[in-house]
Amino acid sequence: MDKDELFSEAEKAAENSYSPYSKFRVGAALLCEDGEIIRGANIENRSFGLTNCAERSAIFTALSKGQNSFKALAIYCPDADYAVSPCGACRQVISEFTDQSFPIFFSGNEKKYVETTIGELFPFNALDELKER
Ligand code: THU
């Protein structure tokens, strides 16, 4: 996997952010099992709670296209001078479709990315037990 390429896709994704309220652009790039990279941006709304984060935009776009197996996710935030990690809602959604070892890279505008896994961000995922019911 080429992390730099994934990050440059996340950077391009942030250009499509619709964030007139927070003025905080976020881009995500999701690497699918077959090599396709799907971009997502944060899309806000004047009813603030309807905002969709970049990470969920990417995952929902991928799933809607029939992609359901993922290898890595990169998140880039040009408006922060610190590395921006996924929110709780996104962690939950990512964990629905990935193993605990799924790699996540995130950065702010300095592009010094933090490398982690969904298991570290969202441990004790009981999805397999739920699916067995
Ligand atoms: N946001 C994301 O898209 N992803 C994150 O990981 C953090 C937050 C968005 C939501 C909102 O549009 C803006 O950033 C400010 O919170």
Q: How many individual domains?
A: 1
Q: In percent, how much strand structure appears in the residues? A: 15-25%
Note the run of SSEs as H and E: HEEHEHEEHH
Computed CA radius of gyration, to the nearest angstrom: 14 Å
Number of strands: 5
- Ligands bound, unique: tetrahydrodeoxyuridine
Q: What portion of residues is helical?
A: 25-40%
CATH superfamily: Cytidine Deaminase, domain 2
- CATH arch. level architecture: 3-Layer(aba) Sandwich
CATH-defined topology: Cytidine Deaminase, domain 2
Mean pLDDT: 95
Put simply, the count of helices is 5
Structural class category = alpha+beta
Major sheet summary line = 5 strands, mixed
Q: Cα distance, first to last residue?
A: 35 Å
Low-confidence stretches: none
What's the CATH first level? Alpha Beta
Query: In order across it, which strands form the biggest sheet?
Result: 2-1-3-4-5
What features would you describe in this structure?
The protein has one domain (3-132): 3-Layer(aba) Sandwich (Cytidine Deaminase, domain 2), CATH 3.40.140. It has helices at residues 3-14, 54-64, 88-96, 118-121, 127-132, and strands spanning 27-32, 37-41, 70-76, 103-107, 114-117. Helix 3 links the parallel strand 3 (70-76) and strand 4. The protein contains five helices and five strands. Strands 2-1-3-4-5 form a five-stranded mixed β-sheet. 32% of the residues lie in helices and 20% in strands. The mean pLDDT is 95. It has 133 residues and is of the alpha+beta class. Bound molecules: tetrahydrodeoxyuridine (THU). The site of tetrahydrodeoxyuridine (THU) has 15 residues, from helix 2.
